[in-house]
Design goal:
This protein has 462 residues and is an alpha+beta fold. It is built from nine helices and 24 strands. The protein has an eight-stranded antiparallel beta sheet. 36% of the residues are buried.
């Protein structure tokens, strides 16, 4: 039996409500089609007016890298006089976008056409869910210093690239930062309209933060609660939430408000942590969390809707194989998935050390050859997850295992495994045995016939 295993740091979202000690688990939506996204950012001089020092764009891009699912791939292209491919399409664990964010400065003219061409080239051939997020102030072309010929060439390139994007089914969303907008909104909006994308009018940097947040959250199930803070101007508010640690390697605590909230502070004894801050959000990233409560303080300016949730990276991985049995009489075979969930820290099975008797085991399987997907229910037997696989599923498959209980979901990960076809070799061997039997029988009959003929000939001799 061949054996396959793979590791995935799997993310969950857990929302906590101020008023009650309850929580909901958010995990990837069942129809989540993990994206390939290129952020295309205007870094020409005119952006300095809309986003002084570039802090708004930098904060939002760092938020996106941390909020998008780990399976998503993100790239970054900036443009002014020239185009820079700051980051190829990479997932979060490989991404170097945050390094380049510190180098972004606003200067020069606007060469959107060349920037869009570079972004489309990064996505072309990726397949699936491909999107460009254009963050700009509306300027399109090379500036007043460009000749008519250069301007015409840039415009032609822009629309040729748009057609290329449409052919490759690349969607272009446009976030127009517009406090001092003086560009041609119709032309820049055409990129989104014709590619099936959205146009967002960003009047304040907090609007940009909300736009990026709404880009990320649809990849998760939207069964979360919002927190309504009813308070007077500048009233100090605080909430305490526990830090889960079991089987967890990293936690991201995301605080988000509909409008800017002042004096947000996270009081924690977590030693290995990092903070990302914007006007209406904060992300506390905790590596190697320790068990303790986290105190969040902030000042609320009137009635607001506030969300606080976790993104958890589990330190477990899934190992899976298939046990196959065949029945040549009925010409059928059956396969059973056998899986284990291993703690990366100890290397031991959590199924043998933890109590999962009240958990419901769901297994999402996919046939790599045909692309067919099914959900089956598993159970724990003798410290292993077992689940009967559908009839006819052979060759290579993947399985995603979720352990679901009230108030907790553990996504163990995804593993690739092979289902050995035992029936065909057995039937082939049975066919060969029958063929050999027929040959032996025919040979015996032929020999018997020869003997009879020889006997007859010997009797007839004078």
């Amino acid at each position: 039996m061949r054996y396959f295993s793979s590791k995935f740091a799997v993310s969950l979202l857990i929302f906590f409500i101020f008023s009650i000690k309850a929580n909901n688990i958010l995990y990837y939506a069942e129809d989540a089609n993990f994206p390939n996204i290129v952020f295309l950012v205007d870094t020409s001089g005119s952006m300095e007016t809309s986003d002084p020092e570039g802090k708004g764009v930098k904060n939002c891009l760092e938020m996106a890298v941390n909020l998008l699912p780990k399976e998503a791939k993100v790239g970054l292209v900036t443009y002014s006089d020239n185009v820079t491919i700051n980051s190829q399409l990479l997932n979060e664990s490989e991404s170097n976008i945050t390094e380049y964010l510190q180098q972004i400065t606003y200067k020069g003219n606007t060469n959107l056409a060349a920037g869009l061409e570079a972004a489309v080239n990064l996505l072309e051939g990726q397949g699936g869910n491909c999107k460009i997020i254009l963050i700009a102030d509306g300027e399109l072309y090379l500036g007043s210093g460009a000749s008519q010929t250069q301007a015409a060439e840039a415009e032609n390139l822009l629309y040729e690239t748009l057609e290329k994007a449409k052919k490759s089914k690349i969607i272009i969303d446009t976030y127009i930062i517009s406090p001092y907008f003086n560009g041609n909104i119709e032309k820049i909006a055409q990129l989104s309209r014709e590619s099936g994308g959205e146009i967002k009018d960003i009047k304040e940097l907090s609007d940009l933060e909300k736009a990026v947040e709404s880009l990320c959250l649809p990849y998760y199930k939207e069964n979360f609660y919002t927190i309504t803070s009813l308070s007077t101007e500048n009233e100090q508010r605080e909430v305490t939430i526990p830090i889960p640690t079991e089987y967890i390697s990293k936690i991201k605590v995301f605080f988000s408000s509909e409008t800017p909230v002042s004096d947000i502070s996270f009081q924690s004894y977590q030693k290995e942590s990092k903070m990302i801050s914007g006007e209406s959000f904060k992300i506390l990233i905790i590596d190697k969390p320790v068990k303790e409560d986290l105190l969040i303080k902030f000042k609320s300016a009137g009635e607001k809707s506030i969300k606080i949730y976790y993104i958890l990276s589990y330190s477990v991985h899934l190992e899976a194989s298939a046990e196959v049995s065949a029945n040549t009489k009925d010409k059928t075979q059956s396969a059973i998935l056998v899986a284990d969930v291993i703690d990366d820290k100890s290397g031991k099975s959590i199924l043998k050390t933890g109590d999962f008797s009240k958990f419901r085991i769901t297994v999402q399987i996919k046939n790599v050859s045909s692309g067919e997907e099914k959900e089956i229910i598993g159970k724990i037997e003798r410290g292993k997850i077992v689940a009967e696989l559908p009839e006819g599923w052979l060759l290579t498959c993947t399985a995603e295992v979720n352990l679901v209980s009230e108030g907790l979901t553990i996504v163990a990960g995804t593993a690739k495994f092979g289902i050995e076809d035992k029936l065909t070799p057995l039937l082939e061997e049975e066919r060969k045995v029958k063929e050999r039997a027929v040959i032996i029988m025919a040979t015996a009959l032929l020999l018997l016939l020869v003997i009879i003929i020889l006997l007859i000939l010997s009797i007839r001799k004078p």
